[in-house]
Write the structure tokens for this entry.
Amino acid sequence: MNERTPILDVVCHLILLAGAALVCLPIYFVFVTGSLSQAEIMRVPMSWLPGGQFFANMQTVLSNANFGRLLLNSFIIASGITVGKLAISVIAAFAVTYFRFPFRMTAFWLIFMSLMLPIEVRIVPTYESAANVALPLNILGSWLGIQALVDLDWNLVNTYSGLILPLIASATATFLFRQFFLTIPDELCEAARIDGATPWQFFRLILLPLSRSNIVALAIILFLMGWNQYLWPLLLTTEAAMANAVIGLKKLMPQSDSLPTWHLLMNAAFLTMLPPTLVILILQRWFVKGLVDSGK
Amino acid sequence: MPARNSAATLSVAASGGGLRLRWPLRRSFIRRTGDAQAESGLKRAHFREWRLPFWLLAPQLFILLLFFFIPSIRALIQAFQLTDPFGATTQWVGFQNFARLFRSSVYWSSVQVTLIFTLAQNVLTLSVALVLAFASNHILRGRGAYRTVLLLPYAIAPAIAGIMLAFLFNPRVGPVAHMLQGLGFDWDPNRNSSHALALIVMAASWKHICYNYIFLIAALLSVPHSILESAYLDGAGPIQRFLRISLPMIAPTLFFLIVINFVYGLFETFAIVDATTRGGPAGATSILVYKVYQDGFVTLDLGSSAAQSVVLMALALFLTFAQFRFIERRVNYSV
């Protein structure tokens, strides 16, 4: 097609520029506000240019609001979710696609069911489960009359495992890997078997290297998801030092009766969104592929 | 997150064919069709062993048991129980929690708010994403650069998107609010309920347009070039080709995105509401997920919260099935 549409071309560029502005301007204002002083943000109209207070505000945020710790928590939680979910998913997908064993389909459907109910719709009982992981044993103990089981108590509130494990309990990654494994030529497995490879060797030496690009793409998505968690950390952290950065922002939100410290909030918000934004900018090629493949 | 995985259903049909019936004789007496179904999703070249797969599946199934199955079943049980706020006594009340819930006018107003919110968010997100996708599909230069920028909101937490817009639209300090006030518009999301609703709709869409955009771009790229070319030869302009050919061809993707947007609006916008309006003013932005949290953790009305959870579960199940249906269709259209 050799079509000339000069007017439409200009209009399209204008539309895309407007879209880019809608994305960038809010982020830019976060940065600008984060670099102003208390007096400057109260001025009307507010400055469109950054002020000189960015690092001073950052110091305040890091020391007073303990944001260094919160950012570290975010990093630990996001990495834990990424590594944990990838690890349990890839082996589970290997098991359901490459092995014939009794109750294979039962296992498959049990995992499949977890796709259907997001954590948001079952927050109270999920919280109770995390507040005492031994709960099912307690109930079993009271049925059987074994006091030792009733007294068991394993509380995950304010712990990293409590923040990570329940978020690993979903099968999205398992399905992506299963899907990918089903597209791998059967000849590879046959050849490996003829060469005398054990299942584990086949997995480690053939399947994992083949899955590398899927693993990277999924890792990016899971990391972003883990970094941006809100509801679960909100419920499971009562100690301020165990919260993640996004929850820390909520605590910095100016209330109507106090001094509106928007510059500190915006500074902290900028610090919080910087790592995931960099991840997406640097690893974009991988990420787009993963997003469309996995439907997430 | 609910079923975000496109893939699941596709393979069930795809891989049922080439299986080997190498089971012990006694198994082969079982109906062949049943057996064929039971072995779907298994590689033709596979291992026959049960110990290793057991250990490979154990971690996932164990975590699912603890943090998915037990909580889900307990949510179902709690919906039929009444527990006092201190957790001291529990009694079985049948459908009373549901009856109380469906009589409550607060609940219905929350349903109404959720409906308006999800619909507005869906329409805004999808239409903006469509316009952007059309524009970037049309131009030749600079596609990659625009895409990079437009994708940025994917990295940003919903809560931050909410906080950001809450600041820009804050009547005291926000630059956009000042502009609106300068135009003589009496903007105040802290008092006016429709302003508050508009605020969370904008924040939710701002965060989610990029997701729609990426899927639309991928779908538009896969529209067969030959069809577009023959339309061009017949004299159809770019806009006409988009509306008459590309849009119908990518309809399955559109349906898929509509379902995904509903899922997002229903379940993933909790952070936006909690970080900005906290359900206010006067319940004007108290969407269903926020109300489950409020009743479960703030006012401690556990029975009602559990009943609401069950209603949301039903909704989530429905949307999951809808989503898989559209995925199947997306594949059948080979778009």
